[in-house]
Design goal:
The chain is about 30% helix and about 20% strand. The protein has about 240 residues and is α/β, with parallel strands linked by helices. Helix 3 (about 90-100) links the parallel strand 2 (about 80-85) and strand 3. The model is unreliable at about 1-20 (pLDDT under 50).
């Protein structure tokens, strides 16, 4: 797929939130075990995206969208259309199916592609969000450069991973406990890589190598929960400078 073959549909105006509640607090169950279902974290991530990016209504992209786990609640929270971009067409097809079941088929779109070669024109996108995908890109620096290229002046990006800064504390603790248990006590090669690519130092290096003019990193990494702006996780946020 080439950029020339993709038609970007663009929207202008201000965010018009719907009345549908999202990211509401969930009461702690009487007993929490390893089998206790945890609240859906994606609405809490969306809440942070809207709080810290404050995007204009327009052309929004969910990069590395998978099944639209971020894109769909983003639509539900704002009523703004979202284009999913992912190399996995099957996953996005499932996302489109979920959107149809929710009556959102007219607001969720799918484009097959990768971060390192985004099939959109320069200066065409108002918001790029990506949850959990940057760690698996072939070239993180190139991907960040592509995001900056497609953003309009004043456009926002929020790239990283986490559960959302307002995710219920009991769920954060259990999520954290399960993550640590998954790795066990052994300092394995897999754990080292997992922690390294989710560290502030790695995110800063990627952003600097991409020559982003300015950026903000929040969160302390994969196994830390102490940042009030990120909770458990790490995020890179930046705005394309006005010409």
């Amino acid at each position: 797929m080439t950029r020339a073959t993709v038609i970007a549909i663009m929207f202008v105006g201000l965010i018009v939130p719907t009345s549908q509640p999202y990211a509401q607090d969930v009461e702690r169950p009487t007993q929490v075990t390893g089998n206790t279902p945890l609240p859906n974290r994606y609405p809490y991530v969306v809440k942070d995206i809207l709080k810290y990016c404050q995007p204009k209504k327009g052309f929004w992209i969910d990069l590395g969208a998978g099944k639209g786990q971020v894109g769909i609640p983003l639509i539900e929270a704002t009523n703004n259309p979202v284009a999913m971009l992912d190399p996995d067409a099957k996953a996005m097809s499932k996302g489109l199916e979920i959107a149809r079941e929710k009556g959102l088929e007219h607001r969720l779109f799918a484009v097959v592609g990768v971060a390192e070669d985004m099939p959109f024109p320069d200066n065409s996108v108002d918001l790029v969000v990506s949850h959990g995908s940057i760690f698996f890109w072939d070239d993180q620096v190139k991907g960040l450069q592509e995001i900056y290229r497609v953003l309009r002046p004043g456009g926002k990006a929020m790239i990283g991973g986490g559960v959302g800064s307002t995710y219920p504390q009991w769920a954060v603790e259990e999520f954290f406990r399960r993550r640590r248990g998954h790795f066990g006590k052994a300092d394995t090669k897999k754990k080292k890589h997992f922690v390294k690519v989710r560290s502030p130092e790695t995110f800063r290096r990627w952003a600097e190598d991409a020559k982003l003019p300015s950026f903000e990193i929040t969160g302390k990494g994969a196994l830390s929960v102490g940042d009030p702006k990120a909770g458990l996780g790490i995020w890179l946020r930046f705005t394309k400078q006005q010409k």
